[in-house]
Amino acid sequence: MATSVFNLETVFPDVQIGDPISREVAYRLIRVNDQQLPELLAAALATKRKFKSNLITYSRKVFIPLTNLCRDYCGYCTFRRDPGQPGAHTMTPDEVLAVARAGEKLGCTEALFSLGDKPELIFPEMRDALRHVGYNSTLHYLEAMCELVLRETLLLPHPNPGLLSTEWIARLARVSPSMGLMLESTKHLACHDDAPDKIPAKRLRTIEEAGKQKVPFTTGLLIGIGETLKDRVDTLLSIRDLHERYGHIQEIIIQNFRAKPEILMRDHAEPSHGDMLRTIAVARLLMPEMNIQAPPNLSLPNYDDFLDAGINDWGGISPLTPDFINPEKPWPHLNQLQLRTEAKGNILRQRLPVYPEFVPALTERKGLLSEKLAIAIGAACLARSAA
Ligand code: SF4
User: Fold this and answer.
1) For the domain with range 50-386, which CATH number is right: 1.10.10.10, 3.20.20.70, 3.40.50.720, 3.40.50.300?
2) Tell me, what's the pLDDT at 344?
């Protein structure tokens, strides 16, 4: 998307490039009309360039859907299954290792563990399956699979297991350099009526606890699921507030809802491309130095417009595994991603699942990391700096 002649002072006199905008200004900017949108994008891009230069990153990953059983029923989810439903599956350790090893051969450095939240609480079948392999809970099994990947491959685990207690954040942080939980929205929305793990206050508590433990953390918004524009700004501000207090948010994902025939929300309107651009731009102006990411596969063919709105990261891209959350939306080929990124004057660079600026914080936590993880982080950083 082309931006017009930069005319910031005239259109947005209360925006200074590099200074975080206020709540009130954000409420206004997220509603700009199509005529003012190019100026908003120009301000966001100038801000991104000031703090992130022309660098755009991505993480080469394998996607490991450890189990798609889940005790929640989110209105937009095609990933989750009940036991016995077609496609219901919990991966075995051999399956986990096979995917991780195949990814390692293709230059991946991230093992993204995505899974349903606490399925054993409502499904006896999951309790039996876990007992069969020797674990008390899905989190115990996840911890063991992170250890397995660390022990047998060069990949670094990045788990996304849902809500976590203080104890489980510490346990998983021993075996993974970063972890994630999408906040989605700070507003309770109808799509989460049957999802006890999507209560915003509980998700904020998990993210805050990770901050207290200084764990590099990925979070973000899912937009277009019933929230208002004001809710979106409020969600961004909640994340900003947590980051100001604990300094641990390593990236914010702005993800767009996509309607699919098999979901409860099949007739719900999708957010427009302009919605994505406005939300990304406002996120950049609220948090000028933040790593901001948008998934390219959910906005084909025009995903490269997000570069104009101030993103500096494409997230995890896999040369091997599909996006199991959105399997009908394949990631663009890495060559394509590179061409599109460079066509807008940027440099595309591979990163680890922990951003470079958060590695020193991990070094400070060294006594809390498993020996394997400490060695793996050191080796991965060395390999990346030599690349
Ligand atoms: S989005 Fe996550 S928590 Fe919600 S139903 Fe799907 S797997 Fe479960």
Assistant:
1) 3.20.20.70
2) 97
